[in-house]
Amino acid sequence: MSRAMICGGGRIPFLRAFSDYTELDTIALGAAAARGALERVGLRGEDLDAIIWGGVILPPTAPNVGRELALELRLPPRIPAHTVTRACASGLQAITDAVAMVERGEAEVVLAGGSDSTSNAALTMPETLIRKVGPVVMGKKAGFGDYLGLAARLSIGKDLIPRQPRVSERSTGKLMGEAAEDMAQRHGISRAAQDSFAVESHLRAARAWDSGKLAKEVVGISLPDGRRIERDGNVRGDTDVEKMAKLRPVFAKDGTITAGSSSPLTDGAAAVIIASEEAAKRLGLQPLAFFRSWAYVGVDPADQLLIGPALAMPKALQRAGLSLGELDRVEIHEAFSAVVLCIRKALASDAFARERLGLERAVGEIADERLNVNGGAVAIGHPFGATGARMVLNLASELKGGGRGVLGICAAGGLGAAAVLEGVA
Amino acid sequence: MADRLLSLAGSSPARRVAKMIGVSLPPGLERDNGPWKEQSLAGRSVDVLLAPAAALGSVLASGLARLGANVGVVGDAAPFQAAGEAWARPSLPEPTAAPYGIVLDVTGIRTVEELRFVYEALAPRLGRLARCGRVILLNRPPEGNASSQAVQWAVDGIMRSLARELGRSGATANRIEVPPGAEDQLLPVLAFLMSPRSAYVSGQPWKISGHLPSQFVPTRPLDGRLALVTGAARGIGAATARALAREGAKVYVHDHPSAKEAVEALAAELNGVPVLGDLATAEGRKVILDLGPLDILVQNAGVTRDKTLGRMEPAQWDLVLSVNLSAVLELAEKVELRKGGAMVCLSSIGGIGGNVGQTNYAATKAGIIGLVEALAAPWAARGIAVSAVAPGFIETKMTEAIPFATREVARRLCNLSQGGQPEDIAEVLTFLASPSGRALSGRVLRVCGGNLLGA
């Protein structure tokens, strides 16, 4: 078996939804990131064997985003592509699929990543409208009278007002933030702890920009009006706990979660190149890191919707034969500051380890200096399908030259994802 | 006919008027007839009161945390804190303001003085128990010397009286008897009894028998099982067929050929298979025997032909005995149940307490108790559970035929002062047929709202 290597990649700057990317859909964003990744890595499109893409809000008329972006980039049409979705772990899913593909010998070089454009989410019309209109418009031989009858039966309030897109769970009806608020309360995570974690995320991301670290991963993008976007739009290097403390809780009246301690709705895309060791050598690619293991888990969404990584990370570590203490970096997806702190608390708990993981002792404490060293989604933003790819790219770059790290991502539906990476010495 | 008083109780002006004139209306019961949930007590508060030398603290701690309860503890709180931490439901040092449930572990009490704990712990809390709440007493099968056994029996009397007192608010009291060594069997029984599925079960001891071990399967417990429900065209049988199918079983829907339409409609609804046969006849029984091996057999079919014994016609005697008992015995003997399977039969409060005009019916329903008790041990060796449910007054076509005045009285003669719904029986039958209910093999459980008749 040939080991699959992460040979770098690229992402476009992440911007808040309904800002400068509003004119660009997920395919355009994905294409920009894919082009950037190929350029950064120094690979020609024709060297690719496959494309695997992750996305959450898929365009209804062109849901196979991976294929569309390849055609948009005029990559050779023979390169197959598919699109996967596993909520916020979609980008990671695309990449671990690519690794499996390479290690199975199905492909040598794969472009994998993900993108999302919340700004271009389709507004859905109520099902009642579709059920009323469908039979008349799509049915056989509807006459004028049928249309008249249809018009009479439509209700403006019930049928004609589009549903507001909400980040809510289908099975429980709860907003993601409400679930996070509930977790914060149950774990006793204070507002102050969340705020200072959020500030730290911004400061670290700003430092990573200033030191040039993030500039190495991010490729600029030209807007339709000719302007260039070169930097993430949400990172605030000048924020502090006083500013954070002024924000109002958004998910519960006496809640602890604010817009400041949540990841914002974001547009963006990220991609990495996965290649077999031989192919990397042949093509002159620079492997950064490789996957030691990964794990996907599910929990009851009615309980703690976003606790999944606390179960997935130990599982991935176990598969890699490593303990938390042996790792140099830990990346936990910042859907909300509170969620990271809940997961960190669970991993440090002996009781959690015994009851939920069947381990004798806690998985371990995670020191601040090892956790999310370049900031996370609270500062950088969270385009659902792209986050996993951004985290893999960032962690692989951090580990270059040796070292090990684990990343964990919580996702809608009570899903948890984790992966253990090792840098190339 | 619908229960008028109960529907009145649903309207607040009517409740006010009733209060003024001093009539008490029956409480509306909280039920859950949806699919089993991963965490059946999610977010509900439960007070755990541990008497001196209580043995079940750690089992309760991890069990209740896993079920999603917010627990307040009186007694050794350490295991509850650890389990609560694991599930992020930290236990509270102070019991909660309006608990949904109160669980009393009195496994360790042996003297009259120690019995006082029950009084002291419960007295200040019962007033704050939520409407349709649950009180569960946990103890051991009586053991030790005579006075020690007497004290342990005393707990049963407390439970039965509490059940009567709590009925007005729709709350229930039950007792689970946990033999030493069967501690790990508690959780599945507790999960069911604490949930709104047990709405119509009150004043009932649930004695873990030790014939077979339970396995806690929180959701879709009957996935892939093949079940047959006799008499499933309507009422309890239909509700049971629905509940079994809902939890994953493939269901043979059986009834008398005269109910062909209803049987076929229900089978279609459940993606099951219709089976028609008259259980009073050999051919009718053969139809069932020809189906081949099953996992679950629910012997629900039954008829009544009420007359006082002196006036009863031979045909009335014979029909009831044939359908309700001969057929049950024959199916129990001849239907092949697979290992891991279960047979659940329908007994009746009438079979336990007797009823005017029901010598024939009560004979069959008491006979079923004998059958269950006799089969439990030999069937356990083959890995098959056997148990029965004894319904009280249930709102069905059968009880609709009772004359108005008698029916109205019968309905009110229980702690909850109302009849049960077919679904109340169906939930208990489904529980008993599932891996969760196997520890109760050999038992006959009353589902009667704490009927004043029979015990």
Proportion of helical residues of chain A: 25-40%
Mean pLDDT of chain A: 94
Order of helices and strands of chain A: EEHEHEHEHHHHHEEHEHEHEHHHHEE
- Contiguous uncertain segments of 5+ residues of chain B: none
* Radius of gyration of CA atoms of chain B, rounded to a whole number: 22 Å
Taken from the alpha-carbon principal axes, the silhouette of chain A is globular
What is the class of the domain at 4-121 and 264-423 in chain A in the CATH system? Answer: Alpha Beta
* Largest sheet entry of chain A: 10 strands, mixed
Strand content of chain B: 15-25%
How many individual helices of chain B? Answer: 16
Instruction: Flag low-confidence runs of chain A.
Output: none
Structure, described:
- The complex is a heterodimer of chains A (425) and B (455).
- Chain A has 425 residues and is α+β, with helices and mostly antiparallel strands.
- Chain A is built from 15 helices and 12 strands.
- In chain A, strands 1, 2, 3, 4, 5, 8, 9, 10, 11 and 12 form a 10-stranded mixed sheet that branches. A two-stranded antiparallel ribbon of chain A has the order 6-7.
- In chain B, α3 runs parallel beside α4.
- In chain B, α11 links the parallel β10 and β11.
- Chains A and B meet through α7 and α13 of A and α3 and α4 of B.
Give a brief rundown of this model.
The complex is a heterodimer of chains A (425) and B (455). Chain A is α+β, with helices and mostly antiparallel strands and 425 residues long.
Write the layout of secondary structure elements.
The complex is a heterodimer of chains A (425) and B (455).
Chain A: E1 4-11, E2 15-16, H1 26-41, E3 50-54, H2 65-72, E4 81-84, H3 90-103, E5 109-117, H4 127-137, H5 144-153, H6 156-159, H7 176-187, H8 191-210, E6 221-222, E7 228-229, H9 241-246, E8 266-276, H10 277-283, E9 289-298, H11 308-320, E10 329-332, H12 337-347, H13 350-357, H14 377-380, H15 384-399, E11 404-411, E12 415-423
Parallel strand pairs in A: 3-4, 3-5, 10-11
Antiparallel strand pairs in A: 1-8, 1-9, 2-8, 5-8, 6-7, 9-12, 11-12
Helix pairs in contact in A: 1-2, 3-15, 4-5, 7-12, 11-12
Chain B: H1 4-9, H2 12-20, E1 45-50, H3 57-66, E2 70-74, H4 78-86, E3 101-105, H5 112-122, E4 134-139, H6 146-166, E5 172-177, H7 186-194, E6 204-207, E7 226-229, H8 235-246, E8 250-255, H9 260-269, E9 273-276, H10 282-289, E10 294-299, H11 314-334, E11 337-346, H12 349-353, H13 359-381, E12 385-391, H14 397-400, H15 404-412, H16 422-433, E13 444-447
Parallel strand pairs in B: 1-2, 1-3, 3-4, 4-5, 5-6, 7-8, 7-10, 8-9, 10-11, 11-12, 12-13
Helix pairs in contact in B: 3-4, 8-16, 11-13
